[in-house]
Amino acid sequence: MFVISKRTNGDYKFVFTSRKGKTIFTSLSCKQKSDCEKIIEAIAGDISQFTFRKNSTPSGKHFFRLSKDGFILATSRKYSTPLMLQKGIDEITKYVLTAEILDFSADKSIFPPEEEVFADATENN
Fold this sequence. Notes:
seven-stranded mixed beta sheet, globular, PH-domain like, alpha+beta
C-alpha cells in the first residue's frame, strides 16, 4: 500500500509498504499533497515507465532509487543482500496495481491524547 504522511517540516511524503507492513521505499519530499497523489497515480498506472537503479552503500547494504526520466522520486530501504533487494522490487511490480492509498497527512491525530488513554493507569498507582 501507499501511505501518505507529513514530515516534521510540513512537507508531504509517501511510502510504499509490503503486505506485511514493512517499508519498501520512501518518496522525496513534496510541498503539496497533490504532488504525492500524482506520483502515486503515475507509479500505479504504469510501473514500467520507471527505472529501478540499484546501488550499494560502503558498508555493503543494497538499495534502489526509483526514477523517471533521470529524476529520482524515491529511495528504498536498505537490504542485506542483492536477492532481498530484488525481492523488494518484485513485490512492487507485482502489487502496485492493486495497492491501496492511505492518507495520514491530516494535522488532526487519529488517536486520543495520551493523557486520556493512560489516565486510569496513573490514578491507580
